[in-house]
Amino acid sequence: MFNRIKGPRQLAAITCISLLSGCGLMSSGSSGDTAPIVVGTTSAPSTLDPAASWDGSWELFRNVYQTLVSFPSGASTPTPDAAESCGFTDTSNRVYHCKLRDGMAFSDGDKLDATAVKFSIDRISRIDVKGGPKGLLGSLKSVEVKGDRDITFHLNKPDATFPFVLATPAMSIVDPAEYPADAVREDGKVSGSGPYALGAYTEGDKAELVENTHYKGFADRKNNAVTIRYFKDSASMVGALRAKKIDATFRGLAASDVVGLQGKQAKDGIQLVEGAGMEISYLVFNPKDPWARKSAVRKAVAQVVDRGAIAHKVYQDTVEPLYSMVPRGLTGHTTGFFDDYGDPSTAKARTILARAGITTPVPLTLWYTTDRYGSATGAEFTELKRQLDASGLFRVTVKGRPWKTFEAGYRKGEYPVFGRGWFPDFPDAENFIAPFVGKQNALGTPYTSPEITDQLLPQSRRESDRAAVVGQFRRAQQILVDDVRLLPLWQGKQYIAASDEIAGGERALDPSTIMMMWELHRKTSW
User: Fold this and answer.
1) pLDDT tens digits along 223-249
2) Is residue 394 part of a domain?
3) Buried b (16+ CB within 10 A) or exposed e, 305-331
4) Less Cβ crowding at N or C end of the chain, within 10 Å?
């Protein structure tokens, strides 16, 4: 098992800023509560099949499916869930063994055994959905089962982060009797073994979660049922909360609504729980573009961009400036961009361009997605344009597209500079570096960096003690700073707004900021 330092635990430490009541002081009312707790979110699933999803669908998966290992409230390392025990059995981190809990079953009563686990993992690679989670299994060679309860994962290279991969909802265990081995399940149903069963589901509207009486795992359910309501925007979701049509919200609160709730919560009877988030926003420079490919242009942009202004003007300080691709709170985080560039400076940027013989203003087109990262994204890019144009060194055009066409465009290399956001698959610095480098990466724009891909990452994956590889992560981040192929902008915070009748919000977010619905309950004492 992992032996990580305690630093990342800060990510799971959530501070209640309710003006109405102390957090975590009320007892659970699970025994007497029958009405479902209704939770609103703007993050609707794109699919109900784990083999087809590497996106916000994980929010639902965590609650209706189960993984061998997962993150209990407050944990920073994977803990056995469907498994009774898990750990590497060799000294090179290439053989990982898990033993299932005894008597496991799916929500419909079907047997959950080692064969079902192997089936679930193997079908991810076999189906290989475009944009799906197969990329997470790059180090997996084969899955071996012995009897009903023993599963052994053989890796093709040392990978100390493999338990973190197994903890992602993409590795959810599904019922072989209900899921095709070589195709995505598309009947709108779920057969899992999580704390809840999916009682009913209406795409884009709601998911009704009911108690899974067959569940065995670490989750201590503090309610009998949860209904998740899907909203198109933050304003309508907050309106439903204030009208008491929902009990809580957890994903998609706009900055203006957060600020409004902070100022009016005492009057409205709403509590706001603030958590340290790991969502990041960043720019990607396309090496195929005649201007973005120039190192001096990228460095001049980095020298001009004012992250503090973006955080304050656009997001009303509900996000924090970010100076590294690895967010604050994770082992190995640095402030490389601030260390190298300091405060925004037009004079320094002009010198960078002049030394490279580049005539100004430099024409650049910045692209963003209009419907994936929140309503403030357009304003963020308007502010970026204002900053770059005001320097006199750039002539910027801003364009936006809906996510599906936006994604297709950047994978074809159509955009000179484009914005992306990133929610981590697991809470480790590796997951903020590895997905973005290499010939095939999550950005669709090849980024060759042999020192990172061939030396630093392989070295880090040999160490289960992640504190021992801080040096590798710092060096990797400095390479990213030197290249400026990626420009980090801000790190988000996570907010849960809830009726003052609801408790448990301060324990409900796992280290990847996925909500564990079972932690929520109605207060029974004051």
Assistant:
1) 999 999 999 888 999 999 999 999 999
2) yes
3) bbbeebbeebbbebbbbbbbbbbbbbb
4) C
